[in-house]
Task: structure prediction
Amino acid sequence: MYFDIAMPLTVFGVTLFSVLLSERFETKLKTIFEERQIAIRDAVLLVTLMVIMITIMALGAQHGLVNPLMVLFLFSCSTLLFVFSYVFSNKRWYLAVLPPAIFVALYFLLKDTIFWALYLANVYAIIFAIFAILYLGSIFEWKSTLIFAVLITAVDAVMVFVTKYMVEFARTGLALRLPLAVILPLFPPVAGIDYPFALGLGDFFLAGLLSIQMLKKYGKKSAVLSAITISIAFFLFESLYLIPAALHNIEVFFPATIIVILGWLPIVLVNCMYGKKEKLW
Result:
């Protein structure tokens, strides 16, 4: 049986690091963002906006309009970098503008180089995933998280298997060298597979968001176990499905949000049955 530990360990590391940072900085983040909370209605709206954005970008890419995707992504990520730099620099705006400026400069200067493709793109992808997890993890509540997870997983499946818009969106983003995904070679290497596997930022985000909600509702131990079981789910998925498909030269696009949910559910159910006796809903 072939297996890979690079991506599962990366999923675990990003998720666990996000949980630990959330535990330490949640109070500060809530203060900065004025104790805002995303209710169920807001979660539905957020998913709807994501569907609209991805659909527009996919349709635009089919007609050769790729620049809007690049501009939107660079603007969104620069804003995220500025907000967190502003928070962690004690609201010194002149320091906060440096990280987004450096990111944009590096993108345009190095995006066609191996150094960007192998290292910087992954580094920035992980940074953006962690920042998004920390921001939304601090303002989501338990019920809105459940609704968001169900909706985004359903939407992901439809846009991968039916409309193919997510596939087009991913291909266009990767062609533009945007850090939309973490791209890693298999480790240990598998003979016959000489290309890396990719996992989108949205999948990292969902894994981190769900684990942070476990931290809030059931405690640190459950949050860590959530990070572990989600990573195990990715390990099994790669070993049993993704690697065999690659060995048969089958191109696979799969909604990895399903894997995140499958890895997360056992910990939730165990806590509901044997933990603090809190209801799932």
About this structure: The longest strand covers residues 181-184. The CA atoms of residues 149 and 271 lie 18 Å apart. The chain has eleven helices and two strands. The chain has a mean pLDDT of 90.
